[in-house]
Structures are given as C-alpha cells and as structure tokens.
Amino acid sequence: MMTRVTMQTMAAAAQRNLQSSSAKLAQLQQSATDLKTFSNVSDNPSAAADAMAVRAQQAAAAQYGRNISDGSAWLATADNALASATTLLQNAKDLTLQGANGAINEDGRKAIAAQLDSIRTELLTKANTQYQGRNIFAGNSSAGAAYTDGNPPVYNGDTSTVERRISTTTTIRVDANGPAIFGSDDKGDSVFGLLTRIAGALKNGDGVSSADIGDMDKALSTVINGRSEVGARHAQLLRAQDANANAVVDLENQRSGIEDLDLSKAFLDVKAQELAYQAALSVTAKVLQPTLMDFLR
C-alpha cells in the first residue's frame, strides 16, 4: 500500500526540521557567548551535577584557606610573643647569675632587683598578648587579659583550646597554653612568682641561691619548648597552606573541564551549524516550490 504524501505534509516536516536546526544553532550561539558547555541544568543534568559537586569542594577549599590564614596569624603572634619572652628570660637569667655574685654591694643588688621587676612587668605584657581582641594564652576565655597583675598574678583563662579546621580530616590548635609555658602559682612554678622571689631576695640582702638559678634555667627551657611547639604547628599550617593551594588549582581545572567551553571548538561548531541551516533552507526552498494556491491565498 502506498502512503500519500501531500504538499502540506512535506511543508510541515520541512518546517519542523528547520525549527530544530534553528534551535540548535541558537543554542550553540548562546554557549559560545557564555563560554559555557551548558546554559541550563536541563541541557546536561549529568555535567551539571558534577559541576555542583566540584563547586561545593571549591567552597570548602576556600574556607580551609581562610582558616589556615587565620590560624597562621594566631601562631605567628604567639611565636613573636614567645620570642620576646625568651629574650626577657635570658636577660633575667644573666641578672640572676650576677646577683649570685657575693662581691656585689647592696646598691648593685637593688639595681639588679629593679631590672628583674621591670622584666617581670614586660613578661606579663607578653603573656597578655592578643590577636584580634582575643588572648593568645587564655584558651577560649573572654576575659580582658590572660593574667591580672597581682602577687601572684591571677590566670583568667580556661583549659579549652582554640582550633581551626584545615581539611576534611584535620584540625590544628592555634593558641598556646599559658599555664604550661609561664607556670602556675597554684603549683608554685610561676615564672612571675620566681622573678618576684629573686628580686625580693636581692632587695633584702639574702642573695640568690643555687635553687633560684636552677628554677630560672627551668623557666627559660619551658618557654623555649613552648615556642618550639608553636613553631612546629606553624610549620604544619604552612604545609597545609601549600597543599590547599594545589587543591584549589586542581579543583578549578576540574570545574573548567566540566563547564567551560573550548572557544575554537565552539567557533567551528557554530559555523558548521550555520552551514547546515543555510543548506536546509536552500533545499527546502527548492523542494517546496510555490503553487497557484500560494498566490491565491
């Protein structure tokens, strides 16, 4: 049985084909304008899902980068404070050794005691170092200062730690333990109490004992060890910063591979579709010749 094909059927089919070709050309032109492989999620749902997953990873990597920068600033501030504290305690140790010399007269001992008092005040200032309004050596305490001056000074911090997440699996501490570094008067090993005791002994003419010298050595070593720990964590953060920077580059390459359009390929695709559309128009015009009815309408 033969199927009858009327001019109306041919015209309708030709119109559909032309509309389809025109729509594809418009889509390619839009993609070339946006430089994106797809304009809407419906154009390529699979690629859109992959792109959204990569963008979520990019957002997380950006947050890790901010956390690393903030943590690095915390630890750099702590390191600077402990560097100054180390210098102060080294000076205090030298003065203590001088004070142990029995040949020094009373005026000399009082001068040394005054310098030790000054060092104690400066050291207390370093122990109250802050970063962006928060105490470096007081955990998560909201107190105005880690230590309140007194005899002995009062520690206002708590036992919690300040941490920053630097990857999906890693967090790192970015503050420093004040009592562990500067000692605690509750345990009788506070460096502030030690300086007060040595200065008082010199003022009273009692002199400096070998136990005082040993305690000063211990206090200096404790601060140095505290600084070493801070330095190790800072180095870990810097390594994490490099790793995160590489991850950011890799993720951007992944996103670009999914979303971004190859400009040269886009140009060729548009030109090819333009030629196909023009050819379709030309063929349709030749096949569907005007009839008498077209002029009578």
From TrEMBL:
Main location: other
The Flagellin C-terminal domain, residue ranges: 216-292
Pfam families according to UniProt: Flagellin_C (PF00700), Flagellin_N (PF00669)
Compartments where located: Bacterial flagellum
Keywords: Bacterial flagellum, Cell projection, Cilium, Flagellum
Region forming the signal peptide: none
Gene3D superfamilies: f41 fragment of flagellin, N-terminal domain
InterPro entries documented for this protein: Flagell_FlgL, Flagellin, Flagellin_C, Flagellin_N
Gene Ontology BP term (one): bacterial-type flagellum-dependent cell motility
Residues annotated as domain Flagellin N-terminal: 7-141
GO molecular function: structural molecule activity
Keyword presence, Ligase: no
GO cellular component: bacterial-type flagellum hook
Superkingdom: Bacteria
NCBIfam families: flagell_flgL (TIGR02550)
Family of the protein in this entry: Belongs to the bacterial flagellin family.
Protein name: Flagellar hook-associated protein 3
Organism for this UniProt entry: Arthrobacter livingstonensis
Gene that specifies this protein: flgL
